[in-house]
Design goal:
Oligomer: single chain
């Protein structure tokens, strides 16, 4: 966290690593979500706040990692929730899983956009490839669930 008035860093924490199960890790022309990766750095590409107490990251990664999903943190760095392999499975289910990226970062979540509506908070998660987006509601960041997802083509 940065205090913009004093231009000082007030808090920082590592995004950490994650173990991924039931994902496709090989580029062989078929979607085979039976592999695993261990100790993968999250390497967030996008970040947004959820109210005053949480922040969410789109964990695409650029160097050694990218956990193929998103993570919700408390502001002290404690993990509240993570999507695990859910985005990978939704992309495959709707026919937009980038099999040619399986050996790299799978669906590559790129950024998050938070929409504050009168009745609830909704986040839009946008992967790098292919062009599809995932809407999520956050009535309680500790119990995330997907309300709808749709494709942008």
């Amino acid at each position: 966290m940065i205090d913009l008035e004093t231009k000082t860093v007030t808090k920082s924490f590592s995004a950490g690593t994650v173990d991924l199960n039931n994902i496709d890790t090989k580029e062989e022309g078929i979607i085979d979500q039976t592999s695993s990766l261990e100790n993968v750095p999250r390497e967030p590409d996008g970040i947004t706040f959820i109210g005053n107490d949480y922040l969410a990251t789109a964990d695409e990664g650029d160097l050694e990692g990218g956990s193929r999903g998103f993570t919700i943190f408390e502001l002290d760095g404690n993990i509240v929730s993570t999507s695990g392999n859910t985005m990978e499975h939704i992309a495959a289910k709707v026919g937009h899983y980038p099999e040619e990226r399986s050996g790299n970062k799978g669906n590559e979540p790129k950024t998050l956009i938070l929409l504050l509506l009168r009745i609830q908070t909704i986040s839009l998660l946008i992967p790098s490839v292919p062009v599809w987006s995932l809407f999520m509601t956050f009535p309680n960041p500790h119990n995330r669930y997907f309300s709808k997802y749709f494709l942008l083509v």
